[in-house]
Amino acid sequence: MPARSTVPAPPSSWSRITSCRACGEGGLQPVLDLGQVPLADVFPTVEDLAQPDPVYPLTVVVCPSCGLLQTREDVPASELFDDRYLYRSSSSADLVARARRQVLDLVGAGRLGPDATIVEIASNDGYLLRHAVGAGVRAVGIDPVAALAAEARALGVETVEAFFDRDLAANLLADGIRADVIVANNVFAHVEDLASTCEGMRDLLAPGGLIRIEVPWVHALVDGLAFDTTYHEHRCHFGVVPLVRLFARHGLVLTHVEHLPVHGGSLRLTVEHSGAPDASVRDAIAVEEAAGLVDGSGYAAFAGRVDDAVARLRAVVAATVERHGPMAGYGAAAKGTVLANVLGLTTDEVAWVVDRNAAKHGRFVPGLRAPILSVEALVDRAPEVTFLFAWNHEAEVLAEQAAVLAAGGRFLVPLPTPRTVAS
Length: 423
Ligand code: JHZ
Ligand code: ZN
Description:
Bound molecules: ligand JHZ, zinc ion
Largest sheet: 7 strands, mixed
Structural class: alpha/beta
């Protein structure tokens, strides 16, 4: 079994931001230091194991001017999203079902008809736009990863292989594509140039059109101790207050906010050319103010709470392994890479990891170097305890694994407080 093996990434491969990604102001304040962590979504092959896994410093800072929480270390998008990027939105049945409902609701509300166009930024494997195609709506996906674009096209989804920005929007407009609806789910946090992305959306959107953006909510990160969702791919952790300011700066208005249970707590934002924020926006702002996320006081205790959570989890892992032997892991999630590395797990503690995404099979969890196997291994190998790295999908995973539970298998849910689930 390969042991942990890491090496600091060359300093030329990353940099540190000194001004806010949203408002451009300096004076970014440190919030959290997670040490040296590999790129969370870049899974080594067996050949890659000949070299140690590169690790990068990972610190989180907050902008005192607009309140945006952000990752200080900047890794270029070309390093993060190439053909080693194996995330497939279709790996979650819940996510696909929610995407389908989102499209059908837009059709039902008259937002998408036979003459309308829906554009999705980061359309991934076509998990959402396939439903628009199915409903007879013109759908245009945008995704920079060639393999993902090919998978989406195989489902009949017209896909432009590119990063979205102001220039791409201009090219689409020149090709006669204007969007009645723009969807950007779980991509806004990855964006390098927020100004260019916002203005590209503003330009591409037809008059009276609608932008729908889903982002993990910073309140859920802080309140739910989801520190494992901080990684280099996630450049920003959005709150409603910095978002209102960001959109206003680029000719857009955040008019409505919906709360979703995705990723421990996400926001679905409705953004338009004009209009006014409704009560849902004001309510979310009130929650952020009460939690100290606007004046920054809520961040003061965060690092200490994370340290306590890490210490608690390390103790639970040690006790579990002593009693039950090495665990399996469920979910080769990006957040799992972070958690495994912050805890310093070795394959003596989590020997192998299963994942529903076949593209990850045969790869290894960065840093931990546990092999990634198909989900059936849980039945075949019957580990006593499985560490649930994909804790955000607890309900879906435990329903899928009812037989493993019934056979006496246990799942260790790591965050916010470690607990064991058994039947
Ligand atoms: P999942 C992702 O992070 C990817 P990750 C990305 N970095 C991002 O921005 C955030 O979401 C918001 C698997 N799985 O979605 C699929 C099963 O095996 O929680 C995934 O590999 N069985 C773009 O990677 C992993 O677990 C299942 O039943 O942290 C979970 O990944 C389900 C539901 C998932 O996020
Ligand atoms: Zn700022």
